[in-house]
Every structure is written in C-alpha cells, then in structure tokens.
Amino acid sequence: MKRLFRTLYGESPAHLLALLASFALCGYALTRLLENDWWGVAEWFVGGALIHDLVLVPLYGSTNWLLQKVTLGGQPQSRRRIAVVNHIRVPAVLSLLMLLVYWPLISQDAPDPYRNETLLSPGVFLGRWLLITAVLFALSALLLLFRRWREARGERG
C-alpha cells in the first residue's frame, strides 16, 4: 500500500501530512491577518508585487550587470571572478533585505506601535543597520580571502 501511495503521489505519506499541516497553518494565519483590515493587506500585497516587478527587478538586474562588468571586465568569466561577484552580491542582498524589512525604523518614520514595542530611540536603527552591513561585507571578504588562501595552499602542495 505504501509503495502504491509513493508511486501515485511521488512522496511518502509523511510528506503529504506535513504539506497539509503547512497549508492549514497558512490558512489560519491568513484568516487572522485578513480579519481586521483585508483591504489594506490586499493593497500592500498588490503594491509590493508591482513595486518589485516594475522597480526592483530592473534595479537589481542592472546593478548585477554593472557589478559583473566592473569585476569581470571584458574578460571571460573564471571561477575566481565569479566568486568575487558572489562575495559582494550575498552581503548586499542581505543588507538590502534588512533595509526593506526595517525601513520604518531606519528612516525614523515608524508609527507609535513600532516605537513602543522596541523601547528604543528611533535614532539607533540607522547606525545599527550600517554596522550590520559593514560586518556582513567584512565577513564575506574574510571568507573570500580564506578560500583564496586555501586554494593557493592546495596548488603548492
């Protein structure tokens, strides 16, 4: 019976149960989210999708193209140069994601509930975001240097 189920469904029964449980949890969260201000949530969702597709995709697509042009130049791509691009790209994406999530606090334009929940002065968030961004880029640079060192050590041995 289990083999027949796997043949028909493609996965184990536990996978189906986990999937159904996650759908139930998402449905519950959606009903809780939409019970107070469903129109505001719909506006935010559609607006976010439009801003992402019409503004952010061209912006980070062109930024990625420029980054590759600057780091790779007109030369063919090599593993090392692609690694440099990726070690810039990952901390930049994480930093921008944090900026997007915490924008009301970073821009000091947060409504009172945000300020009351954090119990912090609005002026601290910009400096902390910049510090976290600097740490992300520094860790990425150290990781790149470590990988290059290990690669060079392996070539000598």
- Uncertain runs are none
Count of strand segments? 0
* Fraction of residues in helix: over 70%
Strand percent estimate: under 5%
The oligomeric status of these chains comes to: single chain
Structural class call reads mainly alpha
Shape: extended
The N- to C-terminal Cα distance equals 55 Å
Largest sheet: none
Mean of residue pLDDT values: 86
- Helix-strand topology string: HHHHHH
Provide a count of the helices. Answer: 6
Radius of gyration: 23 Å
Plain-language structure description:
- This protein has helices at 2-9, 13-72, 79-101, 103-106, 112-118, 124-156.
- The chain has 6 helices and no strands.
- It is extended and about 60 Å long.
- The chain has a domain at 77-157.
- By secondary structure, it is mainly α.
Question: Would you summarize the structure shown here?
Answer:
By secondary structure, the chain is an all-alpha fold.
Helix-strand blueprint:
Layout: H1 2-9, H2 13-72, H3 79-101, H4 103-106, H5 112-118, H6 124-156
Helix pairs in contact: 2-3, 3-6
Q: Could you name the key traits of this structure?
A:
6 helices; extended; 157 residues; mainly alpha
